[in-house]
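Interim report to the steering committee. The following record documents the input for SCO family protein (220 residues).
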Amino acid sequence: MIKSNSKKIFFSFILFGFLILFEACKTEKKEDLPYYNSADFTPNWYEKEQLDTLKLHKIAPFKLIDQDGIEISNETVKGKIYVANFFFTICPSICPTMTQHLAMVQKAYKNDAEIMLLSHSVMPATDSVAQLKKYANHWKIDSQKWHLLTGNKEQIYKLARQAYFAEKEIGLQKEKNEFLHTENAFLIDKQGYIRGVYNATLPLDVENLVKDIEVLKSFQ
């Protein structure tokens, strides 16, 4: 009888240990995404109560024009989760690939007004509203979901390099007129913080982007 009780106690401890491990794994899976505050893209995790006291890097205010000639600003995406990238319509290399892959995001959230995409032209002098509209029609881009942006070149380049760290550390060392080209796409949360960085030329990275959007949706 004593031996039997000892076995029951032993197996109870084993079961208790598995339950603790299971709960720990569930908590880990539910862990929120990191914040990116610098051009080296070091991930930072914070407790929710810390967010009110820390000065975190946030996307700077902007005003640009989309493919429909509509002004798009940080107010347009306020309270929304959005994906941002940089491209130009006559790019023969990475831009078509990025656009094709980001179309997966548009498709995944076609009926979700909470999710948006912003693609900023790095050649605004040639990417007029009409040119962006032509590009949007070619790629079947929904102008209610996905804004192709043009405007002042200096503003776009400053936004890319200082707000999004689009070219990582090297971008901060470039002259303001040096051409900007990057394959990165950025996941921005409802408060304007960078929560993910992805190579938009890689299907797997874009799949991870969609997964991370789901994580953000569950926390915000």
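The chain has two domains: 1-30, 35-219. The committee is asked to note this result when reviewing the revised timeline.
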